[in-house]
Structure formats: structure tokens, C-alpha cells
Amino acid sequence: QVQLVESGGGLVQAGGSLRLSCAASGRTSSTYATGWFRQAPGKEREFVAIITWNGGSTYYADSVKGRFTISRDNAKNTVYLQMNSLKPEDTAIYYCSAARFRSWSALRSASGYDYWGQGTQVTVSS
Q: How many helices (H) and strands (E) does the chain have?
């Protein structure tokens, strides 16, 4: 099992920045990739970004490309999501997730992940 705990959410004005953290524990060696998803009220959970276990590959949703950066520090078993130029439409609960080996296409869907954190709220005011 892998346990994931997100932190770093909060309230920020449009144009501001936040950095989310996802601390992993347990059998982290079994995971291939870590992803960030988000879910706004009344909407489905939406893919945001992925990073492979060694940080060698990353992928972003078009809606955040150029504004968000995913990174990891394996010494700390932590994955980060740096969010810049935030917009009100970025408001959502952000979830960290981890997956065993999957195809890249599968990893862009929530169903491709095996473990989930409890989420952290991000609110962007206009």
C-alpha cells in the first residue's frame, strides 16, 4: 500500500502562486508515476499533470501548460505542483495520485491510478 498526503492549498488572488506538496509513504517503490488531478464542484475529476518515478517524463493538461510545473524529490518521497498565474477557473480540490506501471494514455485518466490522497482545496479569487 501507498499513502499520499497533500498540503499547500489555500486562498490566493488571481495571478498569484501556490505550491502543492504530496508526501508519499509505504511501498513507494511499487509506483511508476504520480499524478495531480482536480475536481471542481459539480464537475468530474480532471487530469492536471503527471511525472514518472524518476522525474524523466512529465505531461500536462492543456489548461495548465506553461503555468504549472510538476517535480519530485525522491529523497523526500515528495511530489510538488508549482502553480503560477492562477485563474479563478483553477479553483478546485486538488488530489495527488500514484499508479503502478500503465500506458501514458491510461495515466491521463483517474481510472489509471491505484492510490489517492485526501485532497487539498485551492481557491482563486478574481
A: 0, 11
Name which of 95, 100, 126 is nearest 113 in CA terms: 100
SS3 call for 45: coil
pLDDT the model gives residue 28 = 82
Q: What is the mean pLDDT of each run of 10 residues along the chain (126 residues)?
A: 96 98 91 95 96 91 98 95 98 97 91 96 97
CA–CA separation, 54 and 71 (whole Å): 10
Which residues on adjacent β-strands are paired with residue 39? 93
The DSSP bridge pattern shows strands 33-39 and 18-26 to be unpaired
Max Cα distance, the chain (Å):
41
